[in-house]
UniProtKB/TrEMBL annotation:
<feature type="transmembrane region" description="Helical">
    <location>
        <begin position="51"/>
        <end position="70"/>
    </location>
</feature>
<feature type="transmembrane region" description="Helical">
    <location>
        <begin position="272"/>
        <end position="298"/>
    </location>
</feature>
<feature type="transmembrane region" description="Helical">
    <location>
        <begin position="183"/>
        <end position="203"/>
    </location>
</feature>
<feature type="transmembrane region" description="Helical">
    <location>
        <begin position="215"/>
        <end position="235"/>
    </location>
</feature>
<keyword id="KW-0472">Membrane</keyword>
<feature type="transmembrane region" description="Helical">
    <location>
        <begin position="131"/>
        <end position="152"/>
    </location>
</feature>
<keyword id="KW-1133">Transmembrane helix</keyword>
<feature type="transmembrane region" description="Helical">
    <location>
        <begin position="242"/>
        <end position="260"/>
    </location>
</feature>
<protein>
    <submittedName>
        <fullName>Uncharacterized protein</fullName>
    </submittedName>
</protein>
<keyword id="KW-0812">Transmembrane</keyword>
<dbReference type="InterPro" id="IPR040410">
    <property type="entry name" value="UPF0658_Golgi"/>
</dbReference>
<feature type="transmembrane region" description="Helical">
    <location>
        <begin position="12"/>
        <end position="31"/>
    </location>
</feature>
<feature type="transmembrane region" description="Helical">
    <location>
        <begin position="77"/>
        <end position="97"/>
    </location>
</feature>
Amino acid sequence: MYFPSTILTRLFLAVALTQSILALGLEAYVFVTVERDLDPTAVGITEGHTVPSYFSLFIFAFVYELVLVYDALKLSSMIQLVGLCIYNALLLMYAAVQPSSVKKALDLLARTFDMDVTPLLKPGRHTWERISPALTAVIVDQAVATAALFVLTYKLRSEFAWVVYKVLNADLSMRRRLLNFQIYMALIKFTFFFLVGFLVQIVSLIPDPRHDPELPLTVVGIFVALAVMCLGIYCAMTEKKAGTVVVIVAYVGAGIYLSYKLSVLYSDDNYPLITFNAVALAMVICNIVMAMVCMANFGKGLSTYTIPQKKLPQEDIHLHNTQTYMYGAGVRTSRLDLGD
């Protein structure tokens, strides 16, 4: 089992883990506090799902981020680390709009009455005043962690380096193909998050899940997204054209679905979800383009560097006598001479 062996990789993992624990703890406090102060009938309106929607998204986002961090460090993938920094910055933006969205929802719930008698938000609880510091703390936690991850990624470039230059030397065309492959691998993993993250929020907004056919369809969509991600990675690594075509068709279908949902959500003025939908749609389009680019490179020798090889013992990366092997979406290095 892999475990980070250098100070910087351990720091990167520690920052991501600390950020996730703090943010999820704060979000859990907000969720429990609001749910206790809401009348049970609040689930019947959209505003009653605002906090559960954020909470469910952040649970998935931070758990998945930890998986991607471990994967990126294990593969020594610089591109994936950069993607994680951007991913974290997007989560920071989402956390920044959370307070205004939650306050707007609570204000509306406080003015809405059940049977014209009981307000949906219990009066006298000072709900907003109790959760506001926690929501601010989430933003601070995200901002500090994002800045730290950017700095650590910048420093880690000297450890991970662009090993591809040492492996392929002056073969510019092969370097370009390998770079396209690594970008595609990272895009597949991040597209999965935005697709599933969007579907998770859709599920949390369903007023009556027991009688709404969209719930089982959305759950099936989550498993389909997972299958497409796995198929996409496997087919790109082994250069399977037929499988890659299936993946492209699946992403086209996802793009059509997201475009339809975007038009529906725009009329509802659900701007946080609209933003997430738009990002997911953009990621799907980028994935389609990069899948086509990578498929055009099949049969040109790239599989020599992308098909998993026998693992070598990891040595001190600052020693001379470079020994390098690549697998999956990243690079594993042992004995990397940074001065060459």
